[in-house]
């Protein structure tokens, strides 16, 4: 049966993407490692590589397809010995088997449980995720999907045996993945008393149709959101709800800083050190001196970071991204300036990779160049 190329998850938080371009067409022969398509996420445009040799049998999602859910079939690949007649028996979503690109962390945990897994039927279509991790098996009549949960198969099995809802757990594995230790820790916690009063449910937000009904018909133009703006709206709402906010304002005399910047720029030309580079360096040192501030809330625990990974806000067409300068406390101003320029340039060209913008411990957003004295975001 033909292999299925699925919409890949290019980051742990990716739920949908835009298939911006195909580099192959029906009938083209491909080899593992060939670039076959381009996917636009909320942060960047990334190339998708084939993971298996074969011939493109058919394209299921045309270039330009918006909001394509992760793990959606996007193309079929005819394997050796197959012709187009094999496409007639294809049934999407049945008995998908896992690709060998399963993360190492997951594979090492599931070794003990491999003998318990039922192999997929030989007559079922094999589904593979191009350039990414393979999806879990999908039943023929799957319920409507909720938020995607990243959990190892062993963690899922233990959770099912213990009656633990994975949606209530915070993963400690790579990229927030829920692993065996997370489920075992949840099982060891005492159950919540049934007599505890339930918290009041927050008021549901107005639906889009309810909002538009508030305004005079014809008095506005509806502008659909692209994936970047939709993601920004969702994450800023989450941040405002989940992160404690407080605001401090102080005026600083930076005459000495500006003088030092002038001297450095004369010496480092053509490299230019900006005021923002000084702020990133100062923030990194401050976080090392006050490690309690170099932390993040993770649902049922605090994550105290060992390094100052400073994200910097970069405005690009259609939105905002926050690429990260890793271990900024270990870098001088010249190194920070050079790295900041490179990250900003790649951000504007939409060439950032997920490791470039995921997992920062602090974010610097600077509007001083516009004469703004202070702002909240």
Provide a concise account of the structure shown.
By secondary structure, the protein is an alpha+beta fold.
Q: CATH H-level name of the largest domain... which superfamily?
A: RNA polymerase II/Efflux pump adaptor protein, barrel-sandwich hybrid domain
Specify the biggest β-sheet: 5 strands, mixed
Shape field? globular
Strand content: 15-25%
The CATH level-2 architecture of the largest domain is identified as Beta Barrel
Rounded average pLDDT = 78
First-to-last CA distance: 52 Å
- Helical residues, percent: 25-40%
Order of helices and strands: EEEEEEEEHEHHHHHHEEEEEEHHE
Sheet with the most strands: spatial strand order: 3-6-8-1-9
CATH class of the largest domain: Mainly Beta
Low-confidence sequence ranges: 94-129, 132-146
How many β-strand stretches? 16
For the CA atoms, what is the radius of gyration? 25 Å
Number of helices: 9
Domain module count: 3
Features:
377 residues, alpha+beta, OB fold (Dihydrolipoamide Acetyltransferase, E2P), Dihydrolipoamide Transferase, Chloramphenicol Acetyltransferase, 5-stranded mixed beta sheet, 4-stranded antiparallel beta sheet, 9 helices, 16 strands, globular
Please, could you describe this protein's structure?
This protein has 377 residues and is of the alpha+beta class. It folds into three domains: 138 residues, RNA polymerase II/Efflux pump adaptor protein, barrel-sandwich hybrid domain (OB fold (Dihydrolipoamide Acetyltransferase, E2P), Beta Barrel); 39 residues, E3-binding domain (Dihydrolipoamide Transferase, Irregular); 127 residues, Chloramphenicol acetyltransferase-like domain (Chloramphenicol Acetyltransferase), CATH 3.30.559.10. Helices cover 25% and strands 17% of the residues. It contains nine helices and 16 strands. It has a five-stranded mixed β-sheet, with no helix packed on it. Strands 5-4-2-7 form a four-stranded antiparallel β-sheet, with no helix packed on it.
